[in-house]
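Researcher: Let's do a round of design. I'm pasting the structure tokens now; please hold your answer until I've finished.
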């Protein structure tokens, strides 16, 4: 069964990987890892991380940058400057980042000399986010960096800050003369990108007043995952599925992002956000667009993003059948007792939504999206459920009927693809569901690049394919706002911890003659 995916489902992808098979697996002895697919080398650059004392820098950004350096994916000349208000020396910053890499990186430095070669490019600058004088000092510091002549104006400014500084930092950068509008200067912005369409529109306008849209890289780390990128290969490099990828053959599409843990120490932030804003508006809507989009004219960034926006514009929101029949919101038992959560909180930790993409390809096909905390298992998965075949042919011999075929694309953990179809049971005259599996770990080894490695490097070379454009943000918030307008009128259900959520979310699908695919025991089918 495994060979089926080698020869049929992934001809283009498999050919690429097989051609460099010796380099595509993690070598546990030598510690060597395969290079990322995009071989373009960034120009010399200076990366300034605003909010460098935060968790994001330690947990994600610095390990990703070190791994890029270790794989020789960075230029000979580069600078990484941490900008924060705490007083700190370059050496102190380097030691903190060394500790972070040892704690969070997928690969450790092979020697002290390797770390020292990377650390000599790390610097620290003390300043307040809203102090324009600090930016003037930063500008002078950048001019005095070794190799600054080669870097020129190729600066990347990364906003790893609280959202309140998303407008402040670009305004100060522009006022100090650190911004150029020719695409050489780049601004990377983390989520949350607004809390509704109005605030997102205001933020877009504020950023575009200081720097050109082509220089703004709105980052969503889900788009950097290898399995997300593989959706394009899977859909458009395989002739056996693309003809079936529409309303004639597909019954429904399900997207699940489930977390095993509760809100933990993030109760203060989460209680102001909730599942709808924290996950569904950004990560899950991005996944939906990649599943539903038309083939782009080319793989250049604007062609790809044009098609994603077209999908969003075809979603009218949740008014088609009434909100109560299309949205379920709930919180897990004990949520109100969590640290920094209001005892009267009405924030949801679980949301299930039914949406429709009203175009020729998808008209009438429901897209079910669900996400939640404290669910049964940590998993992110796309399930393509095909229409049920007629069963009259088998009624004379068996009482069993043919089940719906399901194609499951697992994003995490145990990344891979599972195809479920009907077959005759051995020595029995009845149908039985069987599966075929493709697992990344089995096929390509355990190595999978971290999302931030890919996204940081793409920003360095100016590839905006996996970043979100202003109109994508606007359209995604428009859809969420159609739900939020009637949000308070919805009942708030409560579900047990370590369950698959409230019973009402299952009822929503049952009313359409469907069931959630993901359930007890499903993940164990994967040989990973």
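Researcher: That's everything. Go ahead.
Model: Designed sequence:
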């Amino acid at each position: 069964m495994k060979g089926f995916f080698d020869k049929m489902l992934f001809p283009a992808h498999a050919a690429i990987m097989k051609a460099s098979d010796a380099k595509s697996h993690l070598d546990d002895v030598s510690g060597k890892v395969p290079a990322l697919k995009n071989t373009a080398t960034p120009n010399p650059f200076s990366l300034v991380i605003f909010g460098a004392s935060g968790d994001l820098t330690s947990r994600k950004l610095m390990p990703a940058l070190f791994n890029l350096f270790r794989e020789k994916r960075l230029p000979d000349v580069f600078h990484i400057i941490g900008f924060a208000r705490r007083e700190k020396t370059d050496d102190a910053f380097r030691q903190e980042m060394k500790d972070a890499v040892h704690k969070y990186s997928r690969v450790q430095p092979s020697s002290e000399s390797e770390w020292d070669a990377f650390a000599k490019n790390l610097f620290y600058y003390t300043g307040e986010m809203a102090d324009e004088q600090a930016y003037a000092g930063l500008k002078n510091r950048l001019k005095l960096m070794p190799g600054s002549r080669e870097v020129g104006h190729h600066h990347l400014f990364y906003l790893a800050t609280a959202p309140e500084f998303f407008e402040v930092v670009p305004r100060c950068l522009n006022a100090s003369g650190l911004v150029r509008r020719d695409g050489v200067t780049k601004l990377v912005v983390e989520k949350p990108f607004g809390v509704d369409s109005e605030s997102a529109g205001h933020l877009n306008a504020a950023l575009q007043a200081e720097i050109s849209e082509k220089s703004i890289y709105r980052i969503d780390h889900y788009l950097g995952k290898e399995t997300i990128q593989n959706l394009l290969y899977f859909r458009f490099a395989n002739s056996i599925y693309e003809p079936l990828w529409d309303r004639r053959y597909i019954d429904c599409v399900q997207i699940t992002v489930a977390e095993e843990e509760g809100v933990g120490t993030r109760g203060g932030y989460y209680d102001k956000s909730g599942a709808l804003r924290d996950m569904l508006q950004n990560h899950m809507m991005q996944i939906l667009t990649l599943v539903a989009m038309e083939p782009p004219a080319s793989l250049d960034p604007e062609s790809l993003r044009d098609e994603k926006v077209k999908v969003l514009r075809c979603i009218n929101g949740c008014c088609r059948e009434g909100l109560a029949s299309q949205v379920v919101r709930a919180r897990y038992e004990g949520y109100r007792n969590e640290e920094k959560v209001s005892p009267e909180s009405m924030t949801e930790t679980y949301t299930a939504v039914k949406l429709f993409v009203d175009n020729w390809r998808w008209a009438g096909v429901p897209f079910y999206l669900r996400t939640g905390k404290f669910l049964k298992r940590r998993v992110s998965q796309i399930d393509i459920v095909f229409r049920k075949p007629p069963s009259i042919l088998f009624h004379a011999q068996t009482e069993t009927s043919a089940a719906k075929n399901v194609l499951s694309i697992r994003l995490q953990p145990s990344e891979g693809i599972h195809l479920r179809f009907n077959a005759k049971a051995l020595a029995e005259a009845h149908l039985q569901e069987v599966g075929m599996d493709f697992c990344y770990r089995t096929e390509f080894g355990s190595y999978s690049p971290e999302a931030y490695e890919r996204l940081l490097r793409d920003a360095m070379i100016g590839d905006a394919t996996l970043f979100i454009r202003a109109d994508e943000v606007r359209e995604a918030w428009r859809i969420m706002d159609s739900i939020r307008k009637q949000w308070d009128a919805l009942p708030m259900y409560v579900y047990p911890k370590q369950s698959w959520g409230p019973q009402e979310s299952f009822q929503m699908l049952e009313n359409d003659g469907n069931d959630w695919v993901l359930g007890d025991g499903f993940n164990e089918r994967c040989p990973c």
